[in-house]
Design a protein that fits this description.
Blueprint lengths: L7 E2 L2 E2 H55 L20 H8 L8 H10 L9 H7 L34 H15 L7 H20 L6 H4 L5 H15 L13 H30 L6 H12 L21 H11 L19 H21 L12 H17 L1 H20 L22
Antiparallel strand pairs: 1-2
Helix pairs in contact: 6-8, 6-9, 8-9, 9-11, 9-12, 10-12, 11-14, 12-13
């Protein structure tokens, strides 16, 4: 009996191979269906997450706006800029930013009456809480002009919150430093202090050209004395001053007055730097300028003007000295010395000595470097030069002829300064063996 033998392929019978193919088709179909289901679920999950984030942003946006104050509005609120179409620029700016708001009335009132700069806080709440109106001040329209400074406003908080002790001390130091400047004082006090500065310049020109700081700022010093005299003269003319500044800040006023001495010396020095190369003809190479400046210093030739009709020397009469005196003492500023009687008819001799001292300092720099700038002309040795020039001037004033001629020269300069009429003189070089002598021929 014969048994039928089935054909095989790779160890599988035909029936088994057909069964395995059906199984693979079913498995592949199931995998594709599962993949489609997972893809659909992923898309649905992403959509759900996006919706949840959107709802969260919409719920949190009002709260964030309350926390951060003036935040930028949503992009959807912005006005689109369409080409070639007119639109309101102001409205567009206010839409993307915020409307302009006027400052707090309390802040404006505080700045008006405080007398010093107040740092404006970052928030409106801090501005209204920190800047309290001063009850001791009078109203802005009061004719007495009472402008007392509230000490509680001297140190202002710049933001909400607590400040460290170091920060408060730093702010307090800045306020104290500003008291020693002219900007701390109100308008009427500024006018009075400017007049006092002019009085102090007069003192420098005719009495003490280089006042010592400690002596000038002491309780019996010249600065406090001039402040007091100016106040008395101001009140004698029925002029009003804001109350609450004197005598509380009298020492700060004295410091303001003394610091002006530096400005006065610097101003004369700058005038000399501009005048010397022209009046003394300092031109050419550096070596040539050095030689010319050295020749002017030798025998103090830089002090001598033209010889007179009797062919005699004119000491302290150089046209360079005259030009500096007219520009330094007879200008049109509020602190000009031409407003004082001492300069109406003549130039005081000590004022002439101050100018001659600075001229010599500048010429000395020219003799060393061949050029000059403001940093090279320090007034360190000026007192020594001033004393030597004082001795030379005494020799001139002790001589009857030269003393009278010098007085005539100074009177003619003062007349030119008061009337504005200036007559040019030509300088002349005279040689001598010594640098500190005068010729009384």
């Amino acid at each position: 009996m014969y048994r039928r033998t089935e054909r095989t392929w790779n160890g599988w019978t035909e029936d088994e191979r057909r069964n395995q193919g059906c199984v693979r088709q079913m498995r592949d179909r199931s995998a594709h269906e599962n993949e489609d289901i997972g893809h659909t679920q992923r898309h649905q999950g992403q959509d759900d997450r996006q919706n949840r984030h959107k709802d969260h942003r919409e719920r949190s946006q009002p709260q964030a706006s309350r926390l951060h104050g003036a935040s930028k509005p949503a992009r959807s609120n912005a006005i689109a800029e369409v080409p070639n179409v007119d639109y309101d620029v102001v409205k567009r700016h206010q839409k993307t930013n915020r409307r302009a708001r006027s400052p707090s009335p309390t802040y404006l009132h505080s700045v008006r009456h405080s007398g010093f700069t107040v740092n404006r806080p970052n928030t409106k709440r801090a501005c209204t809480s920190n800047l309290r109106p001063n009850n001791n001040r009078q109203a802005a329209g009061d004719s007495d002009g009472d402008m007392k400074v509230d000490t509680d406003l001297e140190v202002q908080h710049t933001s909400v919150g607590h400040h460290t002790k170091a920060a408060k001390n730093a702010q307090g130091g800045a306020v104290v430093a500003k008291r020693k400047t002219l900007g701390f004082f109100p308008d009427l006090w500024v006018k009075l202090l400017n007049y006092t500065k002019a009085c102090f310049r007069l003192h420098i020109a005719i009495a003490d050209p280089f006042p010592a700081c400690e002596e000038a700022l002491s309780d019996t010093g010249i600065c406090l004395e001039l402040v007091t005299e100016s106040i008395v003269a101001w009140e004698a003319q029925n002029c009003c001053l804001e109350a609450g500044f004197y005598p509380q800040y009298e020492h700060d006023m004295a410091t303001v007055i003394y610091n002006d001495s530096i400005n006065f010396h610097s101003r004369i020095k700058q005038i000399v730097i501009n005048v010397v190369p022209v009046e003394y003809k300092l031109s050419g190479s550096e070596s040539e300028i050095k030689q010319k400046a050295s020749a002017l210093l030798k025998g103090s030739t830089y002090l001598r003007g033209e010889r007179d009709e009797h062919d005699r020397t004119s000491n302290f009469a150089h046209s360079g000295l005259r030009s500096v005196c007219l520009q330094a003492f007879y200008d049109s500023g509020s602190k000009s010395l031409r407003q004082f009687p001492e300069f109406h008819n003549t130039i005081p001799r000590k004022a002439l000595l101050l100018v001659a001292t600075i001229v010599r300092n500048v010429l000395h720099v020219y003799s060393i470097y061949g050029h000059v700038n403001t940093k090279q002309t320090a007034l360190g040795d000026s007192e020594k030069v001033y004393r030597k020039l004082t001795h030379m001037l005494k020799q001139v004033t002790d001589d009857e002829y030269h003393s009278e001629k010098l007085d005539d020269t100074l009177r003619s300069w003062a007349k030119a300064g008061m009337t504005g009429v200036v007559v040019d003189d030509e300088p002349q070089d005279i040689e001598s063996d010594s640098d500190w002598v005068v010729e009384l021929d």
